[in-house]
Amino acid sequence: NLYQEKRRPQFHFTSRRGWVNDTNGMVYHNGKYHLFYQHNPYGWNWGNMTWGHAVSTDLVHWEEWGDAIHPDQMGTIFSGSAVVEHDKSSSAGSEDESKCFVGINSLANEKNSSGFRTGSEEPIVAFYTSAGNNSPWSRGVPFTQSIAYSNDGGRTFTKYEGNPIIGEIAGGTRDPKVFWHDSTGRWVMVLWIENDKFSIFTSDNLINWRIQSDIKGFFECPEMFELPVDGDPSNTKWVVYGAAGDYKLGDFNGTEFTPETGKIKFQHGKNFYASQTFNNIPDSDGRRIQMGWGRGIDMPDMPFNQMILFPVSLTLHTTEQGVRMFKNPVKEISKLHNRHWDWQSQEVSTGENPLSDVSGELFRIKAVLEPRGADKVEFVIRGTPVTYDVSSEQLTCLGSSAPVSLKNGKLTLEILADRMSIEIFAQNGRYYMPIGADLTENPKSLELCSEGGNAFVESMDVYTLKSIWT
Ligand code: FRU
């Protein structure tokens, strides 16, 4: 039975078989979330890089489609992004101006500026790195940037005949992230050039790109987007990050990013890498949704390897240290809720386990705790401790730690436990720690314990979760 193997994650995306790494080409198109990913269709380890493809209507249940983009004589297919070539060109300007632009707008549509559109549907246009030299049939060929497009909702892709669209810059230049910049009415690409350098390019037609400026401080897999601060659309900041996910905040005028912060650490633990966010999410939704690679979560004895982390929504909030990014599991997770237990205003005495009645395989836990007299508060999730140490202000799981300060004496935790992972969101998503953990041989129990004194549960919800594969 598909997706029923012992170590198959039950609410995270994995490929039916073969290796998976970076998320690629994340785009929303006609009611479907498209997730592409670095994929080796022919082996359990990295190699033969191909874009795998999965599709969802709710961010939670995924259907694996056939592989989308295959290696060719220009190279194997490394990471990149995708956009929907929409009708918004020239939306900038004042009301009066935009009236004048109406004509230009419709012209632009009819003009089909990339020339890729063949039917009534807006095409999906994917940008990837042709990793020359990375396969026997592309030996001696440099790394370049290429396009493939789809006029059938991502069912099939055609490689652009004019590839590459950006020739060799440095030895391993890669990972084009393209997005629409509304106020300049242009497409923007951020590309990893070499060492710690990204470059920003702009284009009117997705094909011809002009280099504009550089961003320093990041390695591989660029990502860049705008977010409101504290939900206020009139006060926004731009976020830039690379594969490690640590970010800078700043301003972007369509050609140049001006950082306002140094690099801010965001991901804790060893298992987060190479994430990106969806392009083309409808304004009515307005979320910035990210998915990343759960790097290093090996799947021994399985026909597949590595997993994709649970989708999260990114927001900016003012904190005592300034504006910070927060991440929380997408709300659609509630579709998976199965059994539910809840607690309110309850003392946790040492040696007692308020969760002794709970049993299950897959869990979502949401808790607001006050350590009060305790030195340590600990969840034991299917035998695996997630420990908060009050004096060192450290949250620890399986050797990974995050520095987490209490807020008004409170620790807010959300924990997702699947067969092969534990994802921890602390203080309403300000700290994030995804951890690879093989729970498959472990007890199906949960514990909450305090050490050194009594702790207090302000509120706690525990859900068992349903599999997305049944
Ligand atoms: C990041 C990365 C990317 C590259 C891809 C190759 O994990 O090294 O820079 O495009 O993986 O699979």
Automatic annotation (TrEMBL):
Keywords: Glycosidase, Hydrolase
Gene Ontology CC terms: cytoplasm
Protein name per UniProt: Levanase
Superkingdom as given in the UniProt entry: Bacteria
Family, per entry: Belongs to the glycosyl hydrolase 32 family.
Annotated ranges, domain Glycosyl hydrolase family 32 C-terminal: 343-433
Glycosyl hydrolase family 32 N-terminal domain ranges (all copies): 12-320
GO biological process, one term: sucrose catabolic process
Enzyme class, spelled out: hydrolase
Recorded GO MF terms: fructan beta-fructosidase activity; sucrose alpha-glucosidase activity
EC identifiers of the protein: 3.2.1.80
